[in-house]
Design brief:
This protein has 152 residues and is mostly beta strands. It has a single domain, classed as Sandwich (Jelly Rolls), CATH 2.60.120. Helix content is 12%, strand content 41%. It is built from 2 helices and 11 strands. The strands form 2 sheets. It has a 6-stranded antiparallel beta sheet, with helices on one face.
């Protein structure tokens, strides 16, 4: 991985023109180096990232627009524009857009580990079905949690 360089990633653009479709959300990488990785994300209404754990990364989400419903370490929470969501490594978390509108945010993780490669892998899947996404994620240091029992 290349070291981080000084500069500006222009608004509305990603590194090298990259735009990923990840589980119905649009991710635009803004910076990547061995020590950290950031991306802008657009969550259409009704999209989500199921509960999962990053065992080797701290993750942060700065909410730019909209309101997210969250499950953080078993607790339900809300985060809106201007809020910073802190997700320490090893803590289970899920992110949901139940707002009825579009949510926008800036994510970053430290260190990068294998997350950048995971996003490329999901983006290039012919069919982003849950079983294949979960299996690929497990090989990239992201552990999705099983769904809760029905009726729970």
């Amino acid at each position: 991985m290349k070291p981080m360089t000084a500069g500006v990633t222009p608004a509305g653009q990603g590194l090298e023109g990259i735009v990923w479709n990840i589980l119905g959300q649009i991710y635009v990488p803004k910076q990547v180096s061995e020590s950290s990785f950031s991306w802008h994300a657009t969550f259409p209404a009704g999209t989500f990232v199921p509960p999962h754990i990053h065992p080797t990364q701290d993750e942060f989400i700065y909410v730019l627009e909209g309101t997210f419903s969250l499950v953080l370490d078993g607790q339900e929470m809300q985060a809106g524009a201007g809020d910073l969501i802190r997700l320490p490594m090893g803590i289970p978390h899920g992110i949901f857009n139940h707002s009825g509108g579009i949510n926008k945010c800036l994510f970053w993780v430290a260190p990068t580990r294998r997350l950048y490669d995971l996003f490329w892998g999901i983006h290039t899947m012919k069919d982003q079905n849950p079983r294949d996404v979960v299996a690929l994620a497990a090989h990239h240091e992201v552990d999705f949690l099983p769904p809760p029992p029905e009726g729970a």
